[in-house]
Sequence to fold (486 residues):
Amino acid sequence: MTTTAVEQKKLLINNEWRDASGGKTMDVVNPATEEVCATVASATKDDVDAAVQAARAALNGPWGKMSARERGRIVSKLADRLMERADEVSRLETLHNGKPIFESRQIEIPAAAECFEYYAGWADKVMGETIPVKGNYLTYTLREPLGVVAAIVPWNFPLLLAAWKVAPALSCGNVVILKPASQTPLTAIALGEIAVEAGLPPGVLNVITGPGSSVGQAIVEHPGIDKIAFTGDTNTGKGIMKAAADTLKKITLELGGKSPNIVLPDADLEAALRGATTGIFYGKGEVCAAGSRLLVDRSIKDEFMEKLAARAKKMVAGDPLDPKTRYGALASKKQLETVERYVDVAKKEGASLVAGGGRADIGTGKGYFFQPTVFDKVTPDMTIAREEIFGPVLATIEFSDLDEAIARANDSQYGLAAAVWTRDVKKAHYVARRLQAGTVWINTYNVYDTAAPFGGYKASGFGREMSSHALEHYTQVKSVWVDLNM
Fold:
């Protein structure tokens, strides 16, 4: 698992690579080896201000004057160039996050490229409308860019979630300041390199690295930024809303989840077992939509849990850079400690541990690896049933009938995703309509497409990523009235 140190990376401002104005840097740690794999610039408020000025100049200059179709061509080049560099970018994603290279190379980097390709096609199709009004007037609307957009993205899907924000923002004519998580900045920097290569004019995409507590706060408070697109935990989202109120920024928030995965007694149990496993253990459980609450009908629970525990025990952590590995390292020491703490609390509160529950060793004695963990006999009031763990820990809750399943599924402050497993098509649609979640999967889990919207109910946030619905969050509507009276 030997890795070569990555050279020091700088900030991208106005298509120029710069050191942070304060001269500070921060280390990026490979979570599979606990070794420093890169150093990146640690920005200051002055750097944020410089990025805003560069972005505003691009908005009022070359980018703002460019035709929509030409913008689309450049965004399409981003997609092409990303795939040309997919091997390299995938390796960076795995180095700083700990996810298997299989996930990075075969799933997430291609999905990010697809996102740019999708929104490139929208660039010249964001249109206004004519409105039949009373009186002799020509009345029409213009759909215009918001301006300077700040995209603040988390560490679990660093490049993919950046693409979900950057692609629609650019296609709608905005300029962007991208702030990656401090743990995982390498692929955002790579995206900045690709943007320059693809021909984005200076200032259109700026990449600012540094701690969220200082750099992120400076972004949120900056009066020159028009919109914040944030993905992260709910408490941070609340803080962004409060801080952004002073400058009345537009905001979209994709926040936490505690998603229910419901297995009804008439389900295809083998398919449901695969779905339950994928739902919680893909991405090491560091997925906002992870199916972290498994709700199983009492009549089938014992059989289901026996098979699920056996599946979890067969999952073995491995070197994330090995193409055969399907289960990697947690993204940071802090996250490993968080998962350990929740497991201890679950045991103390009386949950029954049936698989995992401790650190995993891949033979190196290093790395933030944790076993796939399954708890049975979880009650709805237990901590692991209510709080987002963001790790490979499954809380299993039983129910006795359909209405109880729905009630328990909705008994959460969150509402990001949910799933139901059943062979009864009427029952499936009935449950889907009653679940309080932005995405409901029926007889599947963790399926996404750029053409389908994604976002939350309740404390899981507001606004939608992907699809045509995202365009609404990166544009504003202007009404124009022309007097035609003779």
Q: What stands out?
A: Residues 77 and 198 are 6 Å apart (CA to CA). The first helix runs from residue 45 to 60. The chain has a mean pLDDT of 97.
